[in-house]
Write a structure and sequence with these properties.
This protein is an alpha/beta fold and 331 residues long. The protein contains 14 helices and 8 strands.
Amino acid sequence: MKDRKIQIIDSTLRDGNHTVNNNFNLDDIKTIVGKLDKLGADFIEVGYGFGSGYFQKEGYATDHEILETALKESKNSKIAILVFPDKVDLEVYKKLLVKELGLVRLAVQASNVEPAKEYIRLAKEKNIKVGGFMMMASRLSAEEIGKEAVKLKEYGADNITITDSAGAMEPSKVIEVMEVVKSKTNLSLGFHTHDNLGLAVGNSMAAVDSGADFIDTAIGGLGAGAGNTRTELLAAVLHKEGYQVNADMFEAISSVKTLREIIEKYGVDVKDMGDLILIGYYGIYSAFIKLVNKLSEKYNVSKKVLIEEIAAKGFVPGDEEKIEYLAKTLS
């Protein structure tokens, strides 16, 4: 049913932090949380277990500082935390389970979820929603994943995220896995992937169409390896497909510029696809992008408004003079 709600778990602060060697500072965190909160991310996820002094340089934020800052700065989005049981002992973990948390996810190999058992129990004792984050799912068959997923349900997990850590799955595999896990557990399901094969959005939509309730994303796709599903791109596709989604496509697109300004000091960049997303979303002729950029600057007209009007009037190749006249009238 395509009118159902799909939630976004934005992992820019977690998976994206890997790309800068876990060196986001507190000002970076505050700015990114503010942007994610404004665009309507349902959850803003931080990590715990990789940044606890493993990679930090003096002056940069530790995992605990990132968590505290995210909890303080977010006004509307819930804060999620991804915990690696093999890197966070139980005594430290207990201190993380504060009532303000919206979700705890436990990162375990899809082939062996047992390390999550005690961590799930402790979260349930605190009445905090908790899920299993099944990594490297591409290496296993759907039935093998389903067998381990059943264990997570038995441990008390509220949800399960199928995690394509290598970006190696294809849509048919995603569909098969989601359907098997859903049939065996009937839990709320999510999907996390990387764009190694250029299938991040396609696989995310395959997961949604197969019953996923939430999808992991990142602004600009900022994440390890080839990056994650882009928040701004998935929001556009979900809207076009008729799903309900809190994430505002236009705010997400504008957030890419802010993120690029932050990460450039770390020698990292992401492509700004904002104009291309708008053209695809509104369905105008792709080659108009150069004209739109030129006229937007010449007549001081919003590119978004100009693209919307071009789409509304149905302009096609050969209508360039009409488009310039339109831009002039909008100025």
